[in-house]
Amino acid sequence: MSSYPVHTIESAPAQSKPVLRQLQQAFGLIPNVAATMAASPVLINGFIGLFERVHASSLTEPQIQTVLLTNAVTNASEWPVAFHTALALKQGVHPADVDAIRHGALPDDAGLAALSTLARTLIEKRGRLAEADQRRFLEAGFSSGQILEVIAVVAASTITNYTGSVTRPALEAQFEEFVWHAPMA
């Protein structure tokens, strides 16, 4: 059982309340992983600031969700996999591409496959991209600036992934159909 409270707007520290209100407006709920982050105003405010900028990048929402889902699977973080599965489907990522990512494979869509590969490589190599890794991404039609944007997405999602893995929040009912369990090591 988790020892981390799942905060509400009423129970959260004062400096976390504005972010929780913002998330409530954006999603119609406060995601449980964010509700656990609220115990640390430093964490939740840093998280929301970075995520706002990620979603204002040159990447489309389906592209961002592809990176977020890939990161959650690569980091074996169960709550974020379910959450980003729902959001990826809502943003129009093809169900077969979502399923592929959830199973550690690449999407059929070439652009999404390039993003997924780059994200996984960044995590697995701890940011040490080889020239060939970068070249493959650029040859898929992306820019060097977008490599840096993917780094920002990876950084933002790492906050969610690590928080989800440490705090183990309950999965909200609306995401239960997308439950995912990390493969046994």
From TrEMBL:
Stated name of the protein: Alkylhydroperoxidase family enzyme, contains CxxC motif
InterPro entries found in the cross-reference section: AhpD-like
Superkingdom of the organism of origin: Bacteria
Organism: Paraburkholderia ultramafica
